Amino acid sequence: MEKQTTVKIGVNAATGRMGQQITNEIVVSGPAQLSAAFCRSGHPYFEKVVRGSGTVLYTNDLNAGLKASGVMIDFSLPTVSLALLDQALQMKTPLLIGTTGFSEEQLQRINQAAQSIPILLAPNTSIGVNAALSLLAKATKLLGKQADIEIIEAHHKHKLDSPSGTALKMGEVICEQTNTQLAERAVYQRSASKAGRTDNEIGFSVVRGGSIVGDHKVMFALENEIISIEHKATSRQCFAEGAVKAAIWLSSQLNGLYSMQDFLAD
Ligand SMILES: NC(=O)c1ccc[n+]([C@@H]2O[C@H](COP(=O)([O-])OP(=O)(O)OC[C@H]3O[C@@H](n4cnc5c(N)ncnc54)[C@H](OP(=O)(O)O)[C@@H]3O)[C@@H](O)[C@H]2O)c1
Fold it and tell me: What does pTM read for this prediction?
């Protein structure tokens, strides 16, 4: 019988909300082992043992951590992700990036880096959201021409970027199916306009408050009926589980830029 090798996973920003959920998921996940957990030197966890890991310490030694890891998971901030990307390129370590809010220029850098290492870029690592994206593609084929499409998302009050990366991804999926450009269709605020809604637009609405983990709804509004595709994350664990499974898959892929859809389709 073929012996399953344990994949060594390092976690960037391991003290963040997602970072903690992911380190926890790795220490309980069978085919993966925690190899590094990065945090800032001023953090109270610095140089303490990661709970459940046995001996892994929170560290800021990127090079040693990358060297020890078969793949890295990063949920942080765009600038922090790009600093890690530069180091990962040097060490040839595959990188799963769950951070959101990248500019076009930053996305181009990630795209270019994927020529030299495997990178999976996922604004949402939940299996359920990625299933919802497939349903959305199908709904757009059926309704995209007749319906008014609106995307509504809600997150906790600490979230920095808006609309969420997932809401934007939903907009992109709709545009891919209709051969249109999101930049030409997206409407992010209506308060300054006194004009009515045009047929082509995709409106985005954003709610921020409390501890909402992540809700997304795409509404296809017709004259006498509404069809909605909706996903609600009730715990961050759905993102952590998906991220760890996808990172294990990424560790054995060739150089290139991958999405969660590539992982799920394999
Ligand atoms: N792909 C998905 O499925 C998914 C799901 C949820 C969230 N996200 C995204 O993941 C990202 C993180 O979300 P979160 O809720 O975990 O945020 P968070 O709790 O605010 O965590 C941010 C992390 O980044 C670290 N950090 C901030 N500035 C830094 C710097 N200059 N140098 C090094 N580390 C720095 C923080 O360190 P300290 O602990 O020291 O402050 C913390 O560990 C966001 O972009 C969010 O939108 C993606």
Answer: 0.91
